[in-house]
Hints:
With 174 residues, this protein is α/β, with parallel strands linked by helices. The chain contains five helices and six strands, in the order ββααββαβαβα. β3 and β4 form a beta hairpin. It is globular. The site of adenosine-5-diphosphoribose has 26 residues, from β2 and α1.
Amino acid sequence: MPIQILRGDITRLDVDAIVNAANESLLGGGGVDGAIHRAAGPELLEECRKLGGCPTGEARITGGYRLPARHVIHTVGPVWRGGTRNEPALLASCYRSSLALAVENGVHTIAFPAISTGVFGYPIAEAAAIAIGEVVRFLREQGGIDRVVFVCFNEEVEEAHRRSLERLLPDSGF
Length: 174
Ligand code: APR
């Protein structure tokens, strides 16, 4: 099964690309965004400055610099405003856009954090169901990606992803 769920710090993963839960400025922030910029070093911000931002739901790719990962794919999740502002579709678009950009750039192994579930306040169970659903659909419909890792920073997020995967793919041994 090309999907892995694990607990840990995404900045330490040796994969082709790690995904950053950024904001529309792409100029850094707290949470996983702050951790990735700290680990990658100042050249990451220098490259991000040249990108001119990124709309919610879309993704941009940069180098990984001092990270073990070769690339960072920056995507901007929706801020949770109760679920009536197109949040589910925008969050799904983050996963799809990141995977499409990965394939376009010859990325075969990619790691995601739980986009929007921190500062942006997206309910974890719903976000995990969208994340797993979009990744499984992409892997079924398109080639190019060999492995997707969901890197969960805490127990609640990890369990939510495991439950979502178990519901979608029973007996997948998760
Ligand atoms: N590795 C993996 N996951 C992490 C790490 C890490 N080192 N640090 C935090 N996380 C997890 C959080 O626990 C949460 O589950 O990443 C998930 C996303 O949380 P945030 O980083 O807060 O991102 P998000 O909710 O999408 O909010 C984005 O926060 O940091 C700012 O600049 C960012 O404005 C943007 C906003």
